[in-house]
Automatic annotation (TrEMBL):
Keyword Methyltransferase: yes
Pfam families: TPMT
Keywords from the named record: Methyltransferase, Phosphoprotein, S-adenosyl-L-methionine, Transferase
Native source species: Leptospirillum ferriphilum
Molecular function GO labels: S-adenosylmethionine-dependent methyltransferase activity
PANTHER family in the record: CYSTEINE SULFINATE DESULFINASE_CYSTEINE DESULFURASE AND RELATED ENZYMES, PTHR32183
UniProt name for this protein: SAM-dependent methyltransferase
GO biological process: methylation
InterPro entries: SAM-dependent_MTases_sf, TPMT
């Protein structure tokens, strides 16, 4: 997996091709249609410049954005300041968050983090997401199913997402979204997954 130094340099060089410069339209549409959920505590891992975080904070959500690249954190904080919203931005590895964050979030918003980590780490991502969410919390995510070799971004499939998350989450909805930006049409799976509380087999 590319490390903190690698990702930080990408931000310093402005070499961030994944960056849309705006909140991903599928999240905006969910809010506009009233299908995201009521305001609550939101965690965004690998948040980068935190467009989704700023957008949700402007809609009354209590948002914590996490990224381990110092330059991304600096830019996110400045963007939040300019937008005039209250946003908590933490420079930390998602997999090493302070244990005090366990079980406290109502939502986890996934966008370009899952596809950036090495595929063998995906089960650890699922476990961490489950641990950080409160009982009944929602993971609302865009999963990049571009179908190309190599990465990052590493591709996924609807079958893989269902298989990985199915034991710890109830999949309320998952499928290709019509709301992607043009460059990602037909390549993004929009999912709403509810944290299971009883994990007995």
């Amino acid at each position: 997996m590319p490390d903190k130094i690698f990702w930080n340099q990408r931000y310093l060089d402005k070499n961030t091709g994944w960056d849309l410069g705006q909140p991903a339209p599928p999240f905006v549409r969910l809010i506009e249609k009233g299908e995201f959920g009521p305001p609550g505590r939101v965690l965004i891992p690998g948040a980068g410049r935190s467009y989704e975080g700023i957008f949700l904070a402007s809609r009354g959500y209590d948002v914590t954005c996490v990224d381990f690249a110092p330059q991304a954190v600096r830019e996110a904080k400045e963007a939040a300041r300019q937008a005039g919203v209250k946003l908590t931005v933490v420079e930390e590895d998602f997999f090493r968050l302070d244990p005090r964050n366990i079980g406290v979030f109502d939502y986890l918003v996934e966008h370009t983090c899952f596809c950036a980590i090495d595929p063998p780490m995906r089960q650890a991502y699922v476990d961490q997401a489950h641990a950080l969410l409160a009982p009944g919390g929602l993971l609302i995510g865009l999963f990049y199913a571009h179908g190309r070799e190599g990465g990052p971004p590493w591709t996924t499939t609807e079958e893989e997402v269902r298989g990985l998350f199915g034991k710890k989450f109830d999949l309320l909805s998952l499928g290709l979204t019509d709301w992607s930006v043009d460059s990602r049409k037909g390549e993004e799976l929009l999912g709403r997954l509810r944290r299971k509380n009883d994990l007995r087999e």
